[in-house]
Amino acid sequence: MTVVEGAVPEGQPLPSSPPRLEAESRVLLNIERFALPGLLIVVLLFFSLWSKTGATFRSVTDLREVGSNQAYIGVLALASLFPLVCGEFDFSVGQVAGFSQIVVATAMARFHVPLPFAIVLAVLFGAIVGLNNGNVVARVGVNSLIVTLGTSGILLGVVNWYTASQSISEGISSKLVTFGSANFLGIPDVCYLLLGAAVVAYYVLEHTPYGRYLTSIGSNARAARLVGLRVERLKLSAFVISGALAGLAGVLLVAKNGSASPQAGSVLDTLTALAAAYLGATSIRPGRFNVLGAMLAIYFIAFSISGLAIAGVQSWVNNVFYGAALFIAVVVSTVIGRRRAGVT
Amino acid sequence: MAEQGQDTNASADGGDRPGAQGAPGSASVGPPGAPADPGPHAAGVGRTVLRIEHLSKTFPGTVALNDVSIEIERGTVHCLVGGNGSGKSSLIKILAGVSQGDPGGTITVDQSSEDATRTSPEWARSAGLHFVHQDLAVFPMLSVAENLAIGRGFPVATPAKAIRWRELRAQAKTVLERFSVSVDPSRLLRDLRPADRTMVAIARALQDQSSASEGILVLDEPTVALPAHEVDLLLSALRRYADAGQTILLVTHRLEEVVRIADRVTVLRDGKLAATLEAPGITEEQLVELIVGRTLDRDAVARDTADDDDVVLSAFDVSGGPLRSVTFGLRRGEVLGVAGLLGSGRTKLLSMLFGAYPVAHGTIRLDGEEVRFASVDDAMDRGIAFVPEDRSESAFVGMSLRENLSAANVSEYWHGFRLHQRAEAQDARQTIAQFSIKATSERQPFSTLSGGNQQKAIVARWLRRQPKVLLLDEPTQGVDIEARGEIYRLVRQAVAAGSSVIVVTSDFEELARVSDRVLILTQGRVTAVLRPPDVEVSRITQLVLSTAGAGAPLEVNHP
Questions:
Q1: What ranges in B194-330 are assigned the alpha helix state H?
Q2: Hey, are the CB atoms on A341 and B430 less than 8 Å from each other?
Q3: What is the interface pTM, i.e. ipTM, of the complex?
Q4: What's the gap in Å between the CA of A44 and the closest CA on chain B?
């Protein structure tokens, strides 16, 4: 923490702890805050400079590949952030994206709906699923993990029934597919979409009273109610946003793959998104789910795995790396956070 | 007074222990038959099993217990009463071994003495002191049998350590029969009525005693959460246990229970022994006089009305939850204190006024206009602020001090599609200075502030809104003495700035100091309203205690 700027009127508050401890805790906080961006830089430098991987890793195609592959996961992580901030899980984001790609593809292929409307339809569909989830969680009061897990199962079943487990690849708007593979100023278009969504999410969560309300509910729902927040309504809205963003992620998936596959968009993607959100919560604003942290987490993992793959490491190592990164980050962050708070 | 206590004590030593039948109200108590173990009954009775000698306890700045000596005899119900801060809980804590005497004293259980500076939970257990606290520490989602087994261990089959359910049930059945608790051992505890839950907790505490004449059962306000008819059930059971030879030390605020069940009663006042008396024949009035420390003046105590020109907030015939037909008016610029025992409905009253608890019947008026708050933000919009009793209902521990300060007015910083965080921080620094909150910066995590500073910040959160009516529920609970003073200084500032305040606190000294008038709440009813010069500790204590447990309001309300 830096020194408070601005004049404090007389009766300046006294420090509650000795200065040395204060300094130590400030150092710890900064280590914690910037560990993840630091690691991302280390990973990028290491794989770029290592002779075994450098050439391929540095290549523009590889960087683009990683960047655009992760855009879908990034939007999914944003979707999962809103319920997480107010203390709830949305375990259905991956499957909502999976269903949404079928919606957008079917709308275009079978009903010849123009692209913009198809997209709106898919996002709307996600929002309706979110509304249903939020309603059961906030108003009926069922555990969100169970509710969204159930939703996820139903959606998976319906997708498999409707598509007969076949991909939809005919009749998809070429504009959408082009968007999924085109670059602007050398950067994939889908990355701009992720950037836009992330900026909006950051703004909403950090710079509006609405975001503060969600954080308050996540911190202490009873207290939130007693400062006049409509807890049920706010939680409900978080699930609606989550659903809508997951719907958008589904559209992104179709753009990237050029088709809608009943196998794409699954609980596995949900886990990846949630893990990124958790990993991100150890950084930038430690102890809080935050957009920038989640985005850094996604690219830290993605570039690490890409580098390892180029180095010829077997694919099972990816899973281990992935799990270990999450495990270590969360444990270290908890330990540091506790030390900082003076709890031993 | 202390001498009187010793006198009665001495005379009791020589005399016979009065029969249980002598206690007034024992007619309603269960049949004296069905003792679980009549054998040692006769043998054990009349002997001192617990002797507390010269017990003292000092805290920085206060003496909680001052040379207190008590003797408790086998097979009796011995009640311990006293006002807030009389030293009851300090004494119980020392007996339980969670705190120690200082400078000390001696505690003798069944001939074996222990220095009071060395008590520990292990000592208490081995000495045969069994505690059942107000919070029963039972497991609602487990069955009665599992609850009974959880402290002592489950019967298991040898190789795989699997629970032998049939044996567990049989054991539970035996225990329940021994303590005459008629419940099915396989029922979940949450499905039992409250009195039976308490009895299961008692059975659990006593199950390892081989006979009733062993050990001492210490009950700390066991009837607080019980409705009236269940209190009867519990008291009858306690009487039966005592008749069977069980020694019971009962801490209670409800004097009516003392009159009904006690064989003897010890009164503590300001940390000193006020008296130990033979209970049969004693009246509530006598007890109140001993607790308060002076004779009662039965002068006029006015009943409040809701109609007055200068009333800002009023309740008329309001019922809901524990509250029964509550009528009162809060005057402009006044600090109205509310005094009542736990369970009297004092917290529910504030919640209702804040729109956080439904009003079943009656009307609430704000500035003469009837209001029905559908939710908390309705009440907030109308200028009402509420600081709840428990900081777990008001603190956002994971967030910063700044965010906690602006939790009730963040929207004020939102204009032009921006949250003006710099202005928010500026205001936070100003509040920190104005309310002398000790913090390194407004960005400090709330969890790292001391309890007193957290509470100051929460009060400040609401005073920022310049409320018309400020509702404070135990605003100084768990707060150090310096912060207490500061919190009330802030409250007075708010009053000077035009707020009116209702404050609930169980610290009657504090209540007397800060309140202009005091409302006495007893079992959901307003039984009296004190005005100066009656707004003082002994008067409040007297009225709170003397009506406790009595169904009807105290008849002292001549205009």
A1: 194-206, 228-243, 255-261, 284-292
A2: no
A3: 0.79
A4: 33
